[in-house]
Structure formats: structure tokens, C-alpha cells
Write a structure and sequence with these properties.
By secondary structure, this protein is an alpha/beta fold. The chain folds into two domains: about 5-50 and about 300-394, Aspartate Aminotransferase, domain 1, CATH 3.90.1150.10; about 55-295, Aspartate Aminotransferase, domain 2 (3-Layer(aba) Sandwich), CATH 3.40.640.10. The chain contains 14 helices and 17 strands. The protein has helices spanning about 40-45, 55-65, 75-90, 100-115, 140, 145-150, 170-175, 200-210, 235, 265, 280-295, 300-315, 345-350, 375-394, and strands at about 20-25, 30, 35-40, 95-100, 125-130, 160-165, 180-185, 190, 195, 215-220, 245, 255-260, 325-330, 335-340, 355, 360, 365. The longest helix has 19 residues, at about 300-315.
């Protein structure tokens, strides 16, 4: 099928190819030719419960038949119930709903700066880290310390500064130069190449943020909601942020982001300071309730950890056989295989063989299966990956 003709109606922000996908079931996607693909991209970590999960289908039917949209000038029950669940299952006191991770980070920047201005008008600077990714709108883009995303869109916003990831000395140096409103960090970087923050580094950031009276923001847009084997990644390090930004799997496949935060910060915001037309949509929140209720279960999280061990062991076993593999990285079911060279040809060949994978920074291949993935499907995915490596390198 010639799919290039589809490109003519879209702004070329993506290099898409292949027949359109028509439906999904469990860990599989199916295209208009009938071909099946094992989905180890999960819509870029969105489809935590896979495709066509019964709980999501039920929530979609029920809420879709009741109320699809109401202005945020009013309450809706799904919004109330999901906010309560997020507060119950996290450190937070309050929640702000939006539509995406980018929007969540934009809101977090505003909330942090508004709070910091109550201390000093000079406290507006934002610190983030190399290889981090926080979004593509101007605030989130300015917090993203990767030049390739800035190219062609300069100048980025004033007041944003970057330090090398896991580098405490560099952070101390910047803290001597600027008055920071917030420190943004992904505790496990996704887009940047599956890079793990050390526990020591995160504890250091917590201490520094407290000492210097700035807001510590954990971006768990990709690594949150059970993805790394605990409900939130911060729980693995016993480091509690002041704000956590969420999105991707939160809406069960529909657009939904959230900022969860403490009262001290939230109560600096008054009506008119920020807003959203569609954020916290009743249908998205209904799917969010179903997703969070499922993922928060202890047995479900324990099962993720078991499947993580299996996936990492199987991928690590390939390393001695293929010198092109540098290392296997990650936690839970957010796993990366870092290659010595650009893995684009590997990812393309895997797709032709029925396996969807995603590229990340530093020549990394991301394995992000649904959290409901079966052990047999993990075995099949690694077998396809191995077959492709043999074809390319042997």
C-alpha cells in the first residue's frame, strides 16, 4: 500500500509510514491490511492497560452516554473522583487537570513561579537537566535541555538553566548564580535515553530545594502510573517532590494530564491565574479512574516487577552475542537497549517483522509494552528483536 499520499494533508511533524492502524486488542495493533503488530511502544507509554481493555470499554460507554463535556466553571463527578484517587495514592493535597504532559509542565512552571514570587521577585529561574524532556510548547521546551528540540525556535524563554544529569557539583554552581523558583527532573528519563537518576542525586535535589526555598518538580509523565514497577517512581527513592506532573497513561488513551501538589503551592493560585477548556474532560477522567484503580493494585504492581525482571534478563542475555549492544537500561516496563550506532534500521526491521519499538536518545531502543503484557508476548518480542539483530549484524 502506498501511504505517502496520506502525508499531503498533514503538517509534516512526524515521519509516518505504513498502512493506517484500525484497531487493537491486548498487546496487539492491527492495520488496514490485516497485519498484526506486537505493540511495545504502547502509544509512547500511553496504553498502560493495552488495547480494548474491558474496564476502559465499560467506562467509555457509561460516561459517553452520560456526559461528554462540561466547562471547568462547574464540577463533574468523574473529575472529583479521579482527583480524590490521585490525592489518596500520592503525596499531594490538590490536583489540577489539563490535557497533556506538556500542559502539565507549563502549569507547574507557572505554579512554581507564582509561589516563589511570594518569597522574592527575583526567584523566577528554572533549573532542569541534560537529556530531559518536558514538552514542546515554549515553557516546556525551554525546560527541555536538548538543543535539537530548540533548533529553529530560538529564542527560548528567559530564566531557564541546565545542569548535567546526576551532577551535584554543577547544580551547586548554578545555585550560587541564580535564585531558582523550581527544579524540574525526570527521575527516569524516557525520551532522553532511559537514563536513571541516582537516589543520591534525587535526595540531594530534595535537600537543595528545601534549603533554597524552591519547588522540586518530578516529571513522571512517562515513568509514572506503574510504569517502573511502583505506582510512582519517586516511591522507589523515598524522595517526595513538591509537584509531580502526570499524563500519558493517566487518561486511559484519551488526552489527560495532571499537576499534583501540596496545599502551600496550590493555594497561591487564584481564579483567573490559569485554566483549560478541555482539561479534566469527564470521559477522560472516567477512563483515568479505571486505569488508576487497576494499576494501583499491589498484585498488579508486583506482576509488573516480575515481567520487568524477565524482559531485562532476556535483553541482557543478548549483549554478549551482539557487540553492537552497549547496555540494557531501565526499570519496570520502561526498558532501553542502548546501541553503539543509530538503531533506526533495527526499529524499522522490527516493525516489518511485527514488533513496534520506539527510538530514544543516545541510540537507545525503547521497550514500553502495555503493563498488561503477557510473559509469552515478552518472549516473542525479544525473539523478533534477536532475529533482526542476527539479520543485520551476523
Amino acid at each position: 500500500m502506498n501511504t505517502k499520499k496520506f502525508d499531503t494533508v498533514f503538517v509534516p511533524t512526524y515521519a509516518r509510514e505504513g498502512a493506517p492502524f484500525t484497531h487493537g486488542k491486548g498487546s496487539y495493533l492491527f492495520d488496514s491490511t490485516g497485519a498484526a503488530y506486537l505493540d511495545f511502544g504502547s502509544g509512547i507509554a500511553v496504553n498502560a492497560l493495552g488495547h480494548a481493555h474491558p474496564a476502559l470499554q465499560k467506562a467509555l460507554r457509561t460516561q459517553g452516554n452520560a456526559l461528554i463535556h462540561a466547562s471547568n466553571l462547574y464540577f463533574t463527578q468523574p473529575q472529583i473522583d479521579l482527583a480524590k484517587l490521585l490525592v489518596k495514592h500520592s503525596f499531594a493535597d490538590r490536583v489540577f487537570f489539563c490535557n497533556s504532559g506538556t500542559e502539565a509542565n507549563e502549569a507547574a512552571i507557572k505554579f512554581a513561579r507564582k509561589w516563589a514570587r511570594t518569597i522574592s521577585p527575583e526567584k523566577y529561574h528554572i533549573l532542569s537537566f541534560t537529556d530531559g524532556f518536558h514538552g514542546r510548547t515554549y515553557g516546556a521546551l525551554s525546560a527541555t535541555a536538548q538543543e535539537k528540540f530548540h533548533a529553529g525556535f530560538d529564542p527560548i524563554l528567559n530564566g531557564f538553566h541546565y545542569a548535567p544529569f546526576n551532577d551535584m557539583k554543577a547544580v551547586r554552581k548554578l545555585l550560587r548564580q541564580y535564585k531558582f523558583a523550581a527544579i524540574f527532573v525526570e527521575p527516569l528519563q524516557g525520551e532522553g535515553g532511559i537514563n536513571q537518576a541516582t537516589g543520591e542525586f534525587l535526595r540531594f535535589l530534595r535537600d537543595i530545594a528545601t534549603k533554597h526555598k524552591c519547588v522540586l518538580v518530578f516529571d513522571e509523565v512517562q515513568c509514572g502510573m506503574g510504569r517502573t514497577g511502583t505506582l510512582w517512581n519517586y516511591q522507589q527513592h523515598k524522595v517526595i517532590p513538591d509537584i509531580m506532573t502526570l499524563a500519558k497513561p493517566l487518561g486511559g488513551g484519551l488526552p489527560l494530564g495532571a499537576v499534583v501538589t501540596r496545599d502551600e503551592i496550590a493555594l497561591c493560585i487564584k481564579p483567573g491565574d490559569h485554566g483549560t477548556t478541555f482539561g479534566g474532560n469527564p470521559v477522560a477522567c472516567a477512563l483515568g479512574i479505571a486505569t488508576l484503580s487497576t494499576v494501583a493494585d499491589r498484585k498488579f504492581l508486583a506482576d509488573i516487577r516480575k515481567k520487568s525482571t524477565l524482559l531485562i534478563e532476556k535483553l541482557t542475555a543478548l549483549k554478549p552475542k551482539f557487540p553492537a549492544i552497549e547496555q540494557v537500561l531501565g526499570s519496570g516496563l520502561l526498558v532501553g537497549v542502548r546501541m553503539k550506532d543509530d538503531p533506526s534500521s533495527i526499529i524499522a526491521a522490527c516493525r516489518k517483522n511485527g514488533l513496534l519499538l520506539i527510538k530514544a536518545g543516545h541510540n537507545t531502543v525503547r521497550f514500553i509494552p502495555p503493563l498488561t503484557v503477557k510473559t509469552a508476548e515478552i518472549g516473542r518480542a525479544v525473539a523478533i528483536f534477536k532475529k533482526v539483530l542476527i539479520t543485520i549484524f551476523q
